[in-house]
Design a protein that fits this description.
Layout: H1 2-15, H2 19-36, H3 52-64, E1 71-74, H4 83-92, E2 119-121, E3 133-137, E4 141-142, E5 150-158, E6 161-173, E7 176-179, E8 183-185
Parallel strand pairs: 1-2, 1-3
Antiparallel strand pairs: 3-5, 4-5, 5-6, 6-7, 6-8
Length: about 190
């Protein structure tokens, strides 16, 4: 597009070489270049809680995998984002290289309740939760390997053993938070 505008400007200045025409063309070209170099819009702001849509997405995933037993959901976000989790996120986005920005999820945020989160807990207790599935979430953050994508990391485990990690993309739709399908991450602890 810029080459077309420059070509037309050159043709016009050849027909009317007056200084005022050159000035107008220079100003027009400067505007086009300024618009072309404008910075990208800022990334969307993360929600102040893990949306219930993300919890529902994980509940749906667990049901499709045949889980019918008790599920306990930790009420607040946990510091579960590790370098291994970030590498797993890079792998599922087929990213080769370094993250565009460091991942630093916010401190503890509430996890909104969902239909499957009948039992919520403050933290995992090895004795109490040894034989039930426990679902934890990290605070929402911007995916460093994908432009303008927010999401949450979910960790589901039997008690505190054998964890599985998921990335759940989230976004606003008509003023409410919605969640995409959870994507399993290859993470080794």
């Amino acid at each position: 597009m810029i080459s077309v505008i420059l070509s037309e400007a050159k043709d016009l200045s050849a027909r009317d070489p007056s200084p005022s025409m050159r000035l107008r063309m220079t100003i027009a070209i400067a505007h086009v270049l300024a618009l072309a170099c404008a910075s990208a819009p800022p990334p969307p702001a993360a929600p102040s809680a893990v949306p219930s849509a993300a919890v529902e997405a994980m509940c749906g995933r667990m049901r499709t995998e045949g889980m019918t037993g008790d599920l306990r959901v930790v009420r607040t976000t946990q510091p579960i984002v590790t370098p291994a989790v970030i590498r797993g996120l890079a792998d599922v986005t087929f990213y080769q290289g370094k993250a565009s920005q460091p991942v630093m999820p916010a401190g503890p945020l509430p996890v909104e309740p969902a239909s499957c989160s009948k039992v919520t807990i403050d933290s995992i207790n090895a004795r109490r939760d040894a034989d039930v599935m426990v679902l934890q979430f990290a605070a929402p953050f911007s995916n460093p390997f994908s432009r303008r994508q927010l999401g949450v990391i979910a960790r589901i485990s039997l008690g505190d053993e054998s964890p599985m990690w998921y990335w759940i993309p989230i976004g606003q739709r008509n003023g409410t938070w919605a969640a995409g399908s959870p994507v399993i991450l290859s993470v080794r602890e």
